[in-house]
Amino acid sequence: MKNAWLKSGWGIWAILCVIGTVLVTSHWHVLSDQFRLIFLDVGQGDAVLIETPENHTVLVDGGRDERALQQLLETRGYFARTIDLLVITHPDADHIGGLSDIFRAYNVRSVLMAGTKAPESETYQHLLRRITKEGSTVIPARAEETVEMGTLTLDVLYPSGGTWGKDVDRQNPHSVVLRGTFQETSFVLPGDITAAEERKLVRSDTTLEADILKAAHHGSDSSTSTAFLKAVDPEMVVISAGQNNRYGHPAEEVLQRIQRQDATIRSTKQEGNIDIVR
Fold first, then answer.
1. What is the C-alpha end-to-end distance of the chain, expressed in Å?
2. Which of 107, 131, 132, 158 is the most buried (most CB within 10 A)?
3. Which residues lie closer than 8 Å to 57 by C-beta, 6 or more apart?
């Protein structure tokens, strides 16, 4: 009886429906016409996923470990395996440690990075070899560089240039800073820059105003200065930090500055993934 049912048209149709349901469920967000800005919960680290209505995918940093890959698979589904643009803000382990896993699981078409040297970091050297092996197109990140993906525009605000191949003492001050726009929504992703770099941006004629700001350096007191907050004037500030992290991020002083700016505070430490849909 069972074999007869499978051989019948109804049996085959039922199996196809089940398979189709699984595929659609795994792809539902990829096929939607929405813009998504997702601050992934990767513990004490950074990883931001951007998805456009045209099915472009951007990943900014990849956290410290395999949690970034796990979050990507759960968020994007197990069948969507292409990242159109990977942005490496700087070579610190809590921003790049999970990227080798990403490269093993995804086809990374292009990489935007400042290109500073970090010879002491085996994690970074391994990642550079992986980028070469993958054959990804490498785009040097310099101020005034613009990447357009359909309705999404990404403007590089910092660094100003001269960082490619440069051996630096500290990586944070050379982080890639992005300002993104999608229709009426704008956001600033400043990596781990400090207040000194924030002052440079405020003094420049760069457009900083945005609806959403990711707090630099996980809410460290060395960043997210009052002057920078006033210049960006965000409605929302997102902090990417881990539970019970040993640095005490986010700093109470930073939270007070944001509150004085009358912006909403959201944190992966408290909420997990923060998914903003437009």
1. 51
2. 158
3. 49, 50, 51, 76, 80, 82, 83, 84, 85
* Cα-based distances in Å from 184 to 31, 152, 153, 180, 187: 22, 11, 12, 11, 10
How far is the C-alpha of 98 from the C-alpha of 104, rounded, in Å?
11
Residue 31 half-sphere exposure, CB side, CA atoms within 13 Å? 8
> How does pLDDT run across 57-97, given as a tens digit for each residue?
999 999 999 999 999 999 999 899 999 999 999 999 999 99
* CA gap 62, 157 in Å, rounded: 21
What pLDDT was estimated at residue 24?
46
Please, are residues 123 and 99 in contact by the beta-carbon 8 Å criterion? no
| Six-digit token string for 217 | 């350096």
Nearest to 229 by CA among 258, 251, 207: 258
Structure tokens at 60: 């900014």
DSSP code of 241?
-
Gyration radius (Cα) of the chain, Å: 20
Domains present along the chain, CATH in parentheses: 32-272 (3.60.15.10)
Low-confidence spans in the chain with pLDDT less than 50:
5-6, 18, 22-30
Interhelix angle 67-76/9-31, nearest 10 degrees: 120
Q: CA–CA separation, 254 vs 250, rounded Å?
A: 7
